[in-house]
Amino acid sequence: MGLEPFSPDSTIFRDESVLRDGYQPQRLIERDTELEQYQSALKPVINGAPPKNLFLYGQTGVGKTLSSRMVMDRLAEDQEEFDSVEVHVVSLNCKSLNSSYQVAANLINQFRPADDQIKPTGYPSGMIYNMLFEELDALDVTHCLIVLDEIDSIGNDDDILYKLPRANDNNNVENTFVGVIGISNDFTFRDSLSARVKDSLCDEEIHFPPYDANELGNILKQRAAEAFHDTSATRRDDGVYELESEILEDDVIPLCAAFAAQDSGSARQALKRLYKAGDLARDKEAEQITEAHVREADEIVERDKVREELTRLPTQSKLTLYGLLLLEQENEAPAKRSKIYERYVTAAKRIDADVRTDRTIHDCLSQLTLKGFLEVTEQNKGPKGGSYYEYEFSIRASLAQESLREDDRLSELFGESETTTLDSF
Helix, strand, or coil here: 381? Predict the structure, then answer.
């Protein structure tokens, strides 16, 4: 059977881009409190005073990055009314950066033209910071706000989060007020910051909590009115949206919201479910999006989400998971940490990775449990046997295997015999 001709779809979607990640709505609903806190924290800037350093935290998909974009856009617009204030904003996503050095080098290149970029390696640490301070001091503005999104990627190497917030106080930058806005998806990252960094960075903290089902439903109604044909939404005085639609069955929005609220409270995940449900209805040439489409979409989105999060794990955590995979293959799971560590050491040596301590692997197991990949059970064998913890997968082991095999560094661990057995999980 040959390819079918492409033809535009006109039955389900009016504008499907409204449901995708890159879309920026004109109004951010269900975040009035956080937006008010954010704007209030930036008032010193408009007053010409040194800015506060801010720390925004909350899990993925709860509006941190979108709030920052909206607040910075509004600041850029409003500052035009004040002759004594000129603000320059630099935004850097640190997702692929794992050290303060890399963040500093990338920031320098943000200030420089394309023909004067520096290499991301090869300079002494002190020189990199001096170069960054020189760029900041040379700006012909009163304030520079540096937004560092996903700053938790740098781990324990938090030197940049001390030096930048203290740049003015330490006379490293004299002609420009410097403010830092750190954004983190990891609740524990804030707690792991050194005392000096907490003191410098966290002049003000803004927590973005997960959305509940009602809030997610409201967000979905707002977007659905733009995304689907024959769909409209009316915003009541209390902020709640009422939806009328010939495309969406009545239980579609509540079900998408409920699935996402149970999972993570993420608007991004709720929108993905609604978008995928629409996609499935379109592919099946259905006239309406139904509960069945949502349930099928939920399974697909959840599987993709787990794979994406597994892919983003650091190598040491992936090696820890591989150790448990081997024990699963040997029918020895659930397994004690000591057993997992034995398999981990063997795997790390095979790919010439650093072999970390048992304590580090304990931390990896704890993080993997918090992320929902593993389940842990306490075993108590009495006075003689003592108590200990056993770990097992809370996701399909084959899903973990697929993601680990896609990692270039770990792929060599999957030989023919191992691959055949692991595929049967």
Answer: coil
pLDDT tens digits, 298-335 = 999 988 888 888 988 989 999 999 999 999 999 999 99
**For residue 392, what pLDDT band results from cuts at 50, 70 and 90?**
very high
Instruction: Output the pLDDT for position 385.
Output: 62
If 0-12 CB within 10 Å is exposed, 13-18 middle and 19+ buried, where does residue 421 land? middle
Q: What's the CATH number of domain 212-308, 1.10.8.60, 3.40.50.1820, 3.90.1010.20, 3.30.565.10?
A: 1.10.8.60
Residues 31-207, CATH architecture: 3-Layer(aba) Sandwich (3.40)
| C-alpha span between 312 and 314 (Å, rounded) | 7
Tokens of 243: 């939806």
pLDDT the model gives residue 228: 97
Write down the residue that tokens 């034995």 correspond to: 342
Third-level CATH fold of 313-422: Arc Repressor Mutant, subunit A (1.10.10)
Q: Give the CA distances from residue 7 to residues 4, 11, 12, 103, in Å, rounded to whole numbers and listed in that order.
A: 9, 12, 14, 45
Q: Which amino acid is at 261?
A: A
Phi, psi of 42 (to 5 degrees): -95, 0
pTM score, whole prediction: 0.79
